């Protein structure tokens, strides 16, 4: 039981909303992260993606399916979108 509580204690489930959202707010607003759009962070540390998560063709397919499922049309959108085609070289 102690192990379960220890694991849950580290998840957003048992934290106040402001603490649970702190990392998300940081990732969305930190100026130093603007150079790496689309990177994945956990507890303010960048994660190294592996396997299928690094496949650009799979990412493009997932992006297209997401557009279809959400009814999003990036051409008509008034919001900036970050997708596979938006990366800078």
Present the secondary structure layout:
Blueprint: H1 2-9, H2 17-29, E1 41-42, E2 45-46, H3 56-70
Keywords for this entry:
single chain, mainly alpha, two-stranded antiparallel ribbon
Describe what this molecule looks like in 3D.
A hairpin with a 2-residue loop joins strand 1 and strand 2 (45-46). Helices cover 40% and strands 4% of the residues. With 89 residues, the chain is mainly α. It has two domains: 1-48, no CATH class; 51-82, no CATH class. The protein has helices at 2-9, 17-29, 56-70, and strands spanning 41-42, 45-46. The model has no long low-confidence stretch (mean pLDDT 80). It has three helices and two strands, in the order H-H-E-E-H. The chain has a two-stranded antiparallel ribbon with strand order 1-2.
| Helix-strand makeup class | mainly alpha
What are the segments in which pLDDT stays under 50 over at least 5 consecutive residues?
Answer: none
Output the helix-strand order. Answer: HHEEH
Helix content: 40-55%
Radius of gyration: 17 Å
Number of domains: 2
Instruction: Output mean pLDDT.
Output: 80
Sheet with most strands: strand arrangement: 1-2
Quick synopsis:
This protein is mainly alpha-helical. The protein contains three helices and two strands, in the order ααββα. Helix content is 40%, strand content 4%.
């Amino acid at each position: 039981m102690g192990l379960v509580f220890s694991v849950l204690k580290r998840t957003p489930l048992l934290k106040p909303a402001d603490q649970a959202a702190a990392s998300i707010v940081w990732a969305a607003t930190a100026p130093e992260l603007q150079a790496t759009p689309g990177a994945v962070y956990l507890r303010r540390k960048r994660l190294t993606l592996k396997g299928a998560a690094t496949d650009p063709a799979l990412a493009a397919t997932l992006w297209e399916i997401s557009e279809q499922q959400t009814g999003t049309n990036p051409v008509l959108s008034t919001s900036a979108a970050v997708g596979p085609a938006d990366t800078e070289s």
